[in-house]
Amino acid sequence: MLRRRFLQTMTAAAATAAAPAAPPPAADATPIKLGFDTYSLRAFQWKAPQLLEYAAGLKLDTIQFSDLADYESHEKGYLEKIKDQAARLNIAVDGGMGCVCPSSKAFRANGLPPRERLLEGLRITHDVGAKAMRCYMGTSADRIGPPGIEAHMENTIKLFQSVRNQALDFGVKIALENHSGDMQAREVKTIIEESGKDFVGSNLDTGNPIWVVEDPFVTLETLAPYVVTSHMRDSAVFETADGAAGQWVAMGDGNIDYVKFVAEFRRLCPHSAMHLEIITGRPPTPLPYLRGDFWKLYPKMPAWEFARFVALAKSGHPFMGAMVVEDTPGRHPEIMTAALKEQQRIDLERSFEYCKRKLNVGINWRA
Question: All domains of the chain, ordered by start, with CATH?
Answer without folding.
Answer: 31-366 (3.20.20.150)
